[in-house]
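Q: How would the C-alpha cells look for this protein?
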Amino acid sequence: MPDGTTEPVGRPDGESTGPPDSPEPPDDQLADAQAALAEARRRVAEVPAHVVVANHVMGLYELAAIHLSAEDPDLASAALAIDAVAAVIDELGDRLGPEAATMRDALANIRLAYVQVKHRAATPSS
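A: Here is the predicted structure in C-alpha cell form.
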C-alpha cells in the first residue's frame, strides 16, 4: 500500500488467517495435532516396554556404527553411543526380553569394530 502499511495476509477467499507471525495454529490444526499425538501415544502404550527400549538400543548401536564408518571416523561419538548401549544392556540384562542375547552380541560386535577402527586410525598408512 502507498501509505507504508501492508495488506493482511489471508486466504484466496479473502478471509484472514490471523497475523502472519501468530504463534498459535488455527484451532482445527491444533485439534488434528492433538488427535494425532493421542493416537501415537495409544499405539506406543500397546507395545511392550522391552520392545520400545530394544528399538532405542538398536538406534544407539546404529549411531555408533555411523560414526565408526564415516570417512573420518568420530571415535569419541562412537564411544559415547557404545557406552550408552552397554549401560542399558548391562543394567537391564534379561529384562530386555527375548532379544537380550542378540543385543549382547551386537554390543560385542560394535565394541570389536570400534577397536579395529581405532587401531586403523592409529596405524600410519604406508
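The first helix runs from residue 27 to 46.

The two ends are 70 Å apart (CA to CA).

Upvote if useful.
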